[in-house]
Amino acid sequence: MFAKLATVIIVLGAMFGALLVNRQERIDTAAEISRIHFKLERNDRERVRREAEVASKLTPNQIRELVAAIEKASEQASDRDASSSSPLVLKPIPFREDPSRATDDALGTPEELRRLVNEPAGNGALHGEGMGG
């Protein structure tokens, strides 16, 4: 009888120990998820802060000038290098992440947007022609 009682106590102890280990793993996992969530939020805030900083320092005309300079440098490089079959072509992207947050001023009219999206890259759309601004 004593052996049975000792066996039951040992088995129950092992079972409760396993349950405690399982519970601790769940708590650790929840804590890790929370740390990752806060890290993501912190990185999101930093990204938004940097985007705002860049947006406050650059105007659309400055961006167009930079793109034109890149295209010009690319054309000059391709002129020097005859083996290069095609220069760097930058296709316009009317908006980045969330289309519902894009403004009509940034996109232009729906017809201009359709034309911009459907036309082949490198035909001057990067320089703001037909962008509604």
Can you describe what's shown?
The protein has 133 residues and is an all-alpha fold. The protein has a domain at 1-57. The chain has 4 helices and no strands. 3% of the residues are buried.
**Which regions have little confidence, pLDDT < 50, spanning 5+ residues?**
122-133
Q: Which radius of gyration do the C-alpha atoms yield?
A: 30 Å
Q: Residue-averaged pLDDT, rounded?
A: 76
Gross morphology: rod-shaped
Order of helices and strands: HHHH
Structural class computed from helices and strand pairing: mainly alpha
Key features?
single chain, 133 residues, mainly alpha, 4 helices, rod-shaped
Question: How do you describe this structure in short?
Answer:
This protein is mainly alpha-helical. The protein is rod-shaped.
Topology (SSEs and partners):
Blueprint: H1 2-57, H2 60-80, H3 104-107, H4 110-118
